[in-house]
Design brief:
The protein is built from 11 helices and 15 strands. With about 325 residues, the protein is of the alpha/beta class. The protein folds into 3 domains: about 35-95, Nucleic acid-binding proteins (OB fold (Dihydrolipoamide Acetyltransferase, E2P), Beta Barrel); about 100-260, P-loop containing nucleotide triphosphate hydrolases (Rossmann fold), CATH 3.40.50.300; about 275-330, no CATH class. It has a 6-stranded mixed sheet with strand order 10-9-8-13-15-14. The protein has a 5-stranded mixed beta barrel with strand order 1-2-3-5-4. The structure holds zinc ion (ZN).
Amino acid sequence: MARGYTDQDVEHYERPRRRTRPRTKDRPEHADAVDGVVVTVDRGRFTLVVEGRSVYAMKARPLGRKGVVVGDRVRVVGDVSGREGSLARIVEVTPRTTVLRRTADDDDPVERVLVANATQLVVVTALTDPEPRPRLIDRALVAAYDAGLAPLLVLTKADLTSPDELLSTYRSLGVPWVVTHRGPDREIVGLEGIRERLQGQTSVLVGHSGVGKSTLVNALVPDADRETGHVNAVTGRGRHTSTSAVMLPLPDEAGWIIDTPGIRSFGLAHVQPEHLIEAFPDLDEVTEDCPRGCTHGEEEPECGLDEAVEAGEADAERVASFRRLLAARSVTDY
Ligand code: ZN
């Protein structure tokens, strides 16, 4: 036990420095914590991947109401063995590099962070059956640009319809694309091109039912049977619901994909024109002298985008496409 000190106690004067240093510096909190990444979230329980193992965890009390989402990199203490019945504690969330969020809307009354630390947003669309919905694609692109994610279009069923018309809409924006179709043995032709684009990325896949997203996920991650909700040992315990995002490792450590069965639309009311245009540095540059509060939309009287097009300094089609995205923030008839 520590002794009580008095003014007369010689030992007190012999070691003053130890007594003035804050305790936390002497004993850093959670020195034993290990790194993990959140791959599923289900009613306050989290599946993490820690050193290649699947670990089940909850939030430590000091994190309070701080959200933990799929893609978050976290520090974990406690039982990280991953054994049946074990439960670790998340004590820290590492600052996020990107945040994909949705504004509150009719589907969901709360603004939410959907996914953290993703680098790419893959919009999966069928070229026919079901017909592509350009406004939905536009809205997904807006979400990607606003979040700082690189967009990628994956167009399926290219054997039934040419992608040219749809692609012409996105060419001036410089959105990269891959087309796929089913081969004679039902295999996905074009899969290699997608794998190349996913290499080293953390890619969020969005797409409506019937476009072939589940088929694509199953082809990319053979262990993940997304139709039945079964997930392999590394990626979860099959407990998550099919409506939440799930992060899956690509074979050979080629990157991660995040499947989002529950995300049917993006609430975009939080997206500011000033932020969106930063995804297009050439357009951002010519709007430097825009009137205060200019939204760079079609109706703006003195927008630098119009002046740049007139002066031949900006591509009219590119400006029109940017403005289409801007307008897509607030469409409701998609
Ligand atoms: Zn402007």
